[in-house]
């Protein structure tokens, strides 16, 4: 059986990424795919790009990766852009939209957010029709209807089944918004096989040194530092209002 580690949403958090890569290594998984958002939010986009390029066989573009290429952006985004070299920006610009392959007779499609755009967000609690739209073919995909779809973007790991179709989210390596541990997924089956065989999806949680991540953010003089610390220590999205 083959295994593929699927990571996403690193967001410049190196302690979290290093912990996940070490966990993948400890399981002797030799193939790793990344579903985007290497950069932004955290302090070290430069190193995140370099580590992903070194350890990931395939990488797709996320919305933050796309944001690094735009000029009409906030000062916070500009700060993150300045952490990257021209060569790294070119790398992000040319990342593909989708990864598609057969595994144990299932056609698997992986992207950052949805088949429509890196900016079109689908949550696990969205209406059934909206979640089923994740299996649609678009100008960004092949013509083959997938049996399995995986994505990142929403920082919430889950697996849902819809009468023979499976939708899963990897969660986030560097900015998890459920519990304060890094998250990724493992696909197990026969890679490249059109023959139906056993197949599984495992969601993995990895504790990492959050205090080290915060210290790195402070040393880098990260903008929006308080919001970043809140997300790392509470797994609560900064955009949510307090209910006290």
TrEMBL record:
<keyword id="KW-0378">Hydrolase</keyword>
<dbReference type="InterPro" id="IPR024654">
    <property type="entry name" value="Calcineurin-like_PHP_lpxH"/>
</dbReference>
<feature type="domain" description="Calcineurin-like phosphoesterase">
    <location>
        <begin position="3"/>
        <end position="188"/>
    </location>
</feature>
<protein>
    <submittedName>
        <fullName>Protein phosphatase</fullName>
        <ecNumber>3.1.3.16</ecNumber>
    </submittedName>
</protein>
<dbReference type="Pfam" id="PF12850">
    <property type="entry name" value="Metallophos_2"/>
</dbReference>
<dbReference type="InterPro" id="IPR011152">
    <property type="entry name" value="Pesterase_MJ0912"/>
</dbReference>
<dbReference type="InterPro" id="IPR029052">
    <property type="entry name" value="Metallo-depent_PP-like"/>
</dbReference>
<dbReference type="InterPro" id="IPR050126">
    <property type="entry name" value="Ap4A_hydrolase"/>
</dbReference>
<dbReference type="GO" id="GO:0004722">
    <property type="term" value="F:protein serine/threonine phosphatase activity"/>
</dbReference>
<comment type="similarity">
    <text>Belongs to the metallophosphoesterase superfamily. YfcE family.</text>
</comment>
């Amino acid at each position: 059986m083959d295994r593929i580690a699927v990571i996403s949403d690193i967001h410049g958090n190196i302690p979290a990424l290093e912990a996940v890569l070490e966990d993948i290594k400890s399981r002797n998984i030799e193939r790793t795919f990344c579903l985007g958002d290497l950069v932004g939010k955290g302090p070290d986009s430069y190193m995140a790009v370099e580590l992903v390029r070194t350890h990931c066989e395939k990488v797709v573009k996320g919305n933050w990766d796309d944001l690094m290429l735009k000029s009409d952006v906030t000062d916070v985004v500009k700060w993150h852009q300045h952490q990257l070299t021209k060569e790294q920006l070119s790398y992000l610009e040319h990342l593909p939209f989708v990864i598609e392959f057969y595994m144990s007779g299932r056609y698997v499609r992986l992207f950052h957010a949805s088949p429509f755009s890196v900016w079109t967000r689908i949550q696990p609690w969205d209406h059934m029709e909206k979640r089923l739209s994740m299996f649609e073919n678009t100008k960004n995909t092949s013509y083959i209807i997938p049996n399995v779809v995986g994505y990142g973007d929403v920082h919430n790991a889950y697996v849902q089944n819809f009468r023979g179709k499976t939708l899963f989210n990897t969660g986030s390596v560097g900015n998890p918004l459920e519990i304060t541990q890094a998250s990724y997924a493992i696909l197990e089956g026969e890679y490249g096989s059109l023959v139906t065989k056993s197949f599984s999806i495992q969601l993995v949680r990895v504790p990492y040194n959050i205090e080290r991540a915060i210290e790195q953010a402070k040393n880098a003089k990260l903008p929006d530092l308080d919001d970043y610390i809140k997300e790392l220590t509470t797994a609560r999205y900064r955009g949510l209002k307090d209910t006290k």
